[in-house]
Amino acid sequence: MKPSGRLDVVPWAKDAAVHTLFDALVGAGIAARFVGGCVRNSVLERRIEDYDLAVDKPPETVLQSLKARRMTVVPTGLKHGTVTAVIEGRPFELTTLRRDVETDGRRAIVAFTDDWLEDASRRDFTFNALYADLDGTLYDPFDGRRDLADARVRFIGDADTRIAEDRLRVLRFFRFHAWYGKPPFDPASFDACRRNAGTLRGLSGERVRKELLRLLEAPAPADTIAAMVEAAILDQWLPECVGAARLRELIAREDKPDALRRLASILPTGADATAIGKRLKLSTQESLRLEVMLAPEPAIDVAGGPKAWRAGIYRLGNGLYADRLLLATTAAGDWQAALATARGWTPPELPVSGGDALKLGLKPGPKVGALIEEVERWWIDGDFTADRAACLAELERRVKAP
Ligand code: ATP
Ligand code: MG
């Protein structure tokens, strides 16, 4: 693989941990290059999440060589060729050059190689096969930089073939388009995705979930989602999807992007959050949050003003109230002020409890809870102004009431 240019800015040039890592690798006779997202984002001078490297020796060799140099190395995926070096608390993924031996559309059996071009050829998109040396020398075997500059996501090689090897690449195509693309789509790549839209069923929920949420995290994913709906890409994994109209409104309003909330915005109110959560392998907590975001009740009363906002925040909790508010795009009223309240106001705790009712002579039983709930409603109706003494008096009045 021949060099083709240099990075203008080498983000890791003065990174001590990177130099420590390369000193060790070079000392052990291992050639390493940055690859994938970190090089792509270096070219664009965008923020880099973490450093992934490709290495030309088998994972056991990398593991032993770095251990022999007293470095912390974790065998995170020996079978797939990956070990993780941890330097100054930061993880560096080192993956041995690979080629596919067998693919079935879902997962690949790989063999290790020392051929950089072979490794590049099994990657998905041209700009994901960019490599860089420590000194910033670039390797760009498929003209990925031109595609990046033109904001075009393009499969390496024949798109249908590459999708047949791993059907997740259809979703990755749209994920990377949302982050790095602009219209129009590369026609050959898009047409292949459309043709293969009906073949995504066998993928694992975890992989689909990761791509979908990553896509939704992009700065402005609404057009991409709309194109996916149009091309029936989501029919197998998210048939409930109603399109991107509400997502657009949500993005215009949201104070910070949130993938799960954006997911809720492309689903209809009342959709089965549990089923969707199961399908996409959401955690119990994520599923419950999705359920509240999709629930028709309680309606968010934006027009009701501060008192109604505080009552809603008390009932739902600050985070879920903000979610529901941001998703309630048709509600009239000062939603910005409501959102500021959801972000800034801490709901008080009800100043009385069941114990107080017992002290007033009530016998333990369901009556106690019911009475406390009555006082709570009264306290909320009064906009939380009643203090403990006032709440106790109200409780007593109700205990003694005929
Ligand atoms: P991000 O910034 O989102 O992490 P990334 O490019 O690092 O972007 P990953 O999903 O972490 O994306 O994958 C790392 C690299 O591995 C990709 O750049 C690509 O070269 C390769 N890759 C990952 N998944 C696939 C796949 N399904 N098919 C082919 N190549 C893939
Ligand atoms: Mg990555």
Specify the CATH architecture of the largest domain.
2-Layer Sandwich
Strand order of the largest sheet: 3-4-5-2-1-8-9
Number of strands: 9
Q: Which sheet architecture does the biggest sheet show?
A: 7 strands, mixed
- Rounded average pLDDT: 96
CATH third-level topology of the largest domain: Beta Polymerase, domain 2
**What is the CA-atom radius of gyration, in angstroms?**
28 Å
Can you describe this structure?
The protein is of the alpha+beta class. It has 4 domains: 1-150, Beta Polymerase, domain 2; 155-295, cca-adding enzyme, domain 2 (Orthogonal Bundle), CATH 1.10.3090; 297-344, no CATH class; 354-400, no CATH class. It has 20 helices and 9 strands. It has helices spanning 16-27, 37-44, 59-68, 116-121, 144-149, 159-165, 168-180, 187-195, 205-216, 222-230, 245-253, 259-265, 273-279, 284-294, 305-316, 318-327, 335-344, 354-359, 366-381, 388-400; strands at 32-35, 52-55, 72-77, 82-87, 90-96, 98-103, 108-112, 131-132, 138-139. The strands form 2 sheets. The protein has a 7-stranded mixed sheet with strand order 3-4-5-2-1-8-9. The protein has a two-stranded antiparallel sheet with strand order 6-7. It starts with 15 loop residues before the first helix and ends with a helix. The model has no long low-confidence stretch (mean pLDDT 96). The structure holds adenosine-5'-triphosphate and magnesium ion (MG). The site of magnesium ion has 3 residues, from loops.
